[in-house]
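To fix ideas, we reproduce below a protein record of this kind.
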Amino acid sequence: MLLLELEAPFDKRDVQLARRRMAKRWHPDIAPSGRQFEHERHLKAINLAADQLERLAEGVRGGRVTRNAVRASSAAARQAREDAGRRAYEAQERARAHAREREVHDPFASRVPDHSVVHRYARCVSYPEWGVGTVAGIYFTSDPDGRDEVQQWARVRFSHGVRTVPAGSMHFVDFSKPDPAADRAERFMLAAQRAMAEGDYELAAQRLIYAREAEPENVAVLRLMTLAFWQAGKLDAAARAVRDWARADGERPAPHRFAARIYEDIGALDLAEEAAERAALAGPEDASAWERLARLRVRLHDREGALSALRNAGTNGGGDALAALIAEALALEPEMSQRATGC
C-alpha cells in the first residue's frame, strides 16, 4: 500500500489506477541518465505489490478491502515472516551442529582420497554396536619433520553417520563367508571390557548381551555380564545372568559366590544362604565361603547351621572375624532357632 500510495478501503479498480499512476512516474524510459536500473527495480516492486493487493481484493467479500482486512492481512504476513525466519534459524543451527559433528568425527571430509580402497565394508572393533560401515577413504598423517610416526586413518560411513577411526581398529568384512559366532562374541567382549575400564557398566552389559546371543554357553561372557549388571545397579538382570552362569559352570564356586552376594544385595537372604552353601560345598577349602555362609545363617537365626559352618571355617583357618561370628551364633537361643526353622 505504501508503494502504490493507497489508502484503505480500496478495490481492484483502485489498485489498477494506482499501478498506472506509479508506472507513469517510475518508468525506466523517463528516468534520468544513469538511473534506469533503479527505476526498473522500483517498478518491479510496485508491480509485485499491485499483484498481491489485487489478489487480496479478489478474495474478500464484495471485492472491497476494508481497514480491518488490511490489518488482518498485515498480521498474517508478519506471522508468516516470523515463521520463515524461525525455520531459517533452525536450519542454520542444524547445519552448524552438523558441521561441528563432522569436524569432530570426520575431519577428512573435504579431502579427496589419494589411496584406493580395496576393502569396501568394515566394522570398528572398538565400537561393534555401530555395525558394518562403508569405507569411503584411507588417509595418512604426514610429518614434515619426520619425528612422529605416520598414522593411518579410515573414513567410514555407518548408519548413524560418518566416523573417522584408526585403520588398526577396523575389521574388514567379507560377505562371501559367514561370520563365525566366536568372532562376534570376541568383538563384543573386547568392547565390553573397554567400556568397563571407562566405568560405563550399562554399555558393557548391552554389548555383552550381543556376545551372549552369539555364544549362549560362553562362561567368560556370562561372568562379565553378571559383573557388569551388578556394578550398574541392575540387580534383577544380574540375578538372571548369574543363574545362567551357574547352569553353564555350576561345578565351580565362583558363580554361586556371586549369586550369594547379589541375592544378599536384593534382600533375598534365603536364596543367598542356599547359594553360599553351594559355593562352600564346591570349594570346601575356602574359609571365607564358610564364614559368609555362617554370617547369612546368623541373620536367618539358624544357630546350629551357623555353628556348623563356623567349625568348617575354623578347620580351614578362618580370619579375625571368626570369633565375632561365633559369639553372635552362640548368642542365638536354640528355641528361637527352632521356631525360625519351622517358619
